[in-house]
Amino acid sequence: MPKDARVPVIVVSGFLGSGKTTLLKKVLATPELSDSLMIVNEIGEIGIDHHLLEKSDDRTVLLDNGCLCCQLRGDLQELLVDITLRRRRGELPGFDRVIVETSGLADPGPVAQTLYSDAPLARDYRLAHVVALVDANNAEGRRAAPVIASRQVAAADLVIVTKTDLATQDQVAESLDWINTINGFARREIASHGDIDIALLAGVSPFAWQEPTETEQGGYLGSLLTPHPRDVTSFTLTFNEPLPRELFQDFLDILVRLRGADLLRVKGILHFEGEAAPVLVQGVCHVFDKHVALAKGASAPDQSTLVFIVRALARKDIESLWLSLLSLSR
Ligand SMILES: Nc1nc2c(ncn2[C@@H]2O[C@H](COP(=O)(O)OP(=O)(O)OP(=O)(O)O)[C@@H](O)[C@H]2O)c(=O)[nH]1
C-alpha cells in the first residue's frame, strides 16, 4: 500500500465545557502534535477559545457564531479547500494535521461525513479520529441537550471521560455506563486536566467513520428526533468600562446560586478596574474556575466580553441583575 499522503484531520467534540480546549492546549504543547492547524468552532457571537489556545494566529482559524454541523458546514468545506490552495502557494506555514474543535452543541457526525462525501476534500484530507469528551461531573448539563450529547459519543472512535478529579467514582462509572449504552465500539480513556497519552492521537488510525447503525446505538438515538434543543440560547455581554472585580464576583455568585444548572457554559475575558492584565473567567453550570490573568502578550478583545450559553434564561434578566447590582453599589 502506498503511504497515504493526505492530511489527517482529527475532529474533537464534547458537550459544552467538557474540556476540549484544555485538552487541546496540552496536545498542541507536545512535540508530536504541535505542528497542527487548529480550526475552532464556537456558538457565541464572539469566539473566546482561540485566545486561550495560545497558538500563533496563522495556525488557528476561528469559525464562530454558528454550529459546524448545520450552518457552518459549507464554511468548513470552503475553508479546507482554501487552506489547501494557500498551502500549495506557500502562503501558509506547513502543518502535519488539522484539528477541528467543534462547538459544544455540534454533532461531529456530519462534520466527519463532509470529509468523505466531498470529493475534492477527500483527495487532500482523511479523517484520522473523531474524539468525544464526556465530563464525568456534568451529567446534568448533558441532559439539557441529550440528543447532541449522545450523538457526539456515537460518532467517536475515542471517548475521553474528563474532569475525573472533580467527579466521584459513581459519577465516573455512570458516565462510562452512559457511553456504553450509546457506543460500545469506541476506545475509552479517563483523564483529568487534558492529560492523555498523546500516542492515542498522534498515531495513524485504521479507523474509518461510519454512520452508526441502530443496533450500535442501542436504539437510543433513533428515538430522539430534534438535535438542537430549542430552549438553549447563546448571547454575549460586552462592557465598555473596566469592571469592579468584587461586584462582578457577587454577580456571578448570585447567578450560580439562582440558576447554576442553566448556565451550560459561561466564558469570557474581562478587564477589571486597576488591573493591567485581562482575566479569563469561565464556568460550567455550578462550577467556575478561579479567575486567571492572561499571560503577558496574549491576545484579548479590547472590551470585556462574556459569552453565555444558557437554558431557558433570558439575556435581559442577566443584564438587569448586573445593572441592579451596579446601581445598588453606587
Ligand atoms: N477540575 C477540572 N477542571 C477542568 C478539567 N478540564 C477542564 N476543566 C475546566 O472546565 C472548564 C471548561 O473547560 P474547557 O477546556 O474550556 O471546555 P470546552 O469543552 O473547550 O468548552 P466549550 O468549548 O465552551 O464547550 C474550564 O473552566 C476548565 O478549566 C479537568 O480535568 N478538571
Report on the architecture of this protein:
- The protein is of the alpha/beta class.
- It has two domains: 7-223, Rossmann fold (3-Layer(aba) Sandwich); 232-328, Hypothetical Protein Yjia, Chain: A,domain 2.
- 32% of the residues lie in helices and 23% in strands.
- The protein contains eleven helices and 13 strands.
- It has a seven-stranded parallel sheet with strand order 3-2-4-1-5-6-7, sandwiched between helices.
- Helix 10 (245-259) packs across helix 11 (315-328).
- The longest helix has 16 residues, at 73-88.
- Mean pLDDT is 82; it is low at 204-226.
- The structure holds guanosine-5'-triphosphate.
- Guanosine-5'-triphosphate binds at residues 14, 16-22, 49, 104, 162-163, 165-166, 192-193, 265, 267, 282, 284, 289.
- InterPro entries: CobW-likC_sf, CobW-like_C, CobW/HypB/UreG_nucleotide-bd, P-loop_NTPase, Zinc-reg_GTPase_activator.
- It comes from Pigmentiphaga litoralis.
- This is G3E family GTPase.
